[in-house]
Amino acid sequence: MVGSFEIGAVPFNPDGWGPPDAAIEGSNTTNLPHNVPFAPFTRSDKVGRIADWTRNFNNPARSKNPSDAVFDFTNDDSFPASADDDATFRLVDGKPPPRPKFGPKWRFQQQKQLPQRKDEEVEAKRREAEKERARRDRLYHLNRSNPHGPRREAAVYKSSVDIQPEWNMRDQIPFSTFSKLSFTVPEPEDLQFCGGLEYYDRTYDRTTPKSDRRLERFKNRNFFKVTTTDDPVIRRLANEDKATVFATDSILSTLMCAPRSVYSWDIVVQRVGNKLFFDKRDGSQLDLLSVHETSQEPLPEAKDDINSAHSLSVEAAYINQNFSQQVLIRDGNKVTFDEANPFANEGEEVASVAYRYRRWKLDKEIYLVARCEVQSVLDVNQQRSYLTLNALNEFDPKYSGVDWRQKLETQRGAVLATELKNNANKLAKWTAQALLASADMMKLGYVSRIHPRDHFNHAILAVVGYKPKDFAAQINLNPNNMWGIVKSIVDMCMKLEEGKYVLVKDPSKPQVRIYQVPADAFENDYVEEPLPEEEQAQPPAEGVDGEEATATTNDVNDIKIDNQA
Asked: Is 410 helix (H, G, I), strand (E, B) or coil?
């Protein structure tokens, strides 16, 4: 007997499609669970009612296929739980991504997408560098704006000359007015050539840090730092009325580059008759070379320290003199001029230097004569070229942040940029002196200590040549502005009455002051009583009690006698 299969009672729903809301009484549904909600079992199947012919097809968001929309119950409120799940459900493509084609186009596209972590590291380093630079600028301006408060570089920014109580301040000029000045001078005229020059050794142009050369000492050669009024040639030219204003290239370059200076300096001005003489004092700061003058990192204050400002200035002057003689061909072959060295005695061994006395026309009635220097000569294309020789010195890499022995061969531009930042005034003065002498080339040597704590032994690491006009444009040094500064100072001094004056760069402010001093000031017998530092910026009150020194003068009397003759 074949068993029968009971389908069971199928309830009828007279109100619509689907099972009724309540089971029909008496039906055989005891084997079915009660109150179990219907839910789809496969996520990809839209299972609900079989079909809903009562759907509204006027909905603009409906599917484009009406036949599919009849069977779409995703937005039906009959299944709220399923609707929420379907809203967050996304199909995941299990296929592997296509392998990239290693072509130029793919490489270009991949280069645009840098790793995020690398970008963050670069950004973090940039932010740290900006913070450090802001901190250094803040400390620098804080120290400069508070000259009377305690600061680390107080010893560096002291006055170059002690202001005396009897000195009378006549005028003060802020450096901000110098930047607006401009004056064009015609080509200078050579009045006389003196001295002798040795030829430059071109093998030093191939010097590298790996093949450095030890710096030699030239104790037998004499170097002369003669001021204007002690120069016999300038005295003779003054007697012949060749000019109205007389100076040297070191004094003129100091005036021309005054806005770049930080350390204090002073220049003596003598007004004798209708003539003007710019002098320097014996043992003046102009005889030395500043080191790290415009750097933001302060140098040690102790004067005995080998890295103090004074010790480095003496060391730089020593290096510069020896370097200017070592890079020459010392075979006895010299280029001589009409007159020998005017400061050397007969039979005395002197350094290779030529003095070029030149005259510039500043006005219809004002001419300026200056003694300019060149240190060497070179024959280029059968033409004689004059050279100036100067040396930059490295004393400790931790102060500059650049190690010359590592960076000089591969990053010479970075080394020069660092020197331009730390020694802007010194490089500008060297460039101005080369322009005044009309030198065809200026050679810059890079000289470093053998050991950072040994300031006696040095090595030449490299020698680089520049044309003065090109180098001036590179460091933003405008010749018209330089002559504008000189012209303004000359005009100001020519309005003063006869006597002796001194131009002093303020040690803490970017300005220069002019004081009227006694005729015997800065002489050997002159007794100096320094004025208190807080009163140096103020003009002394009238009627100051004190006795004036009565020592006899030498230079001024001699000038007056020569002028009257």
From this structure: coil
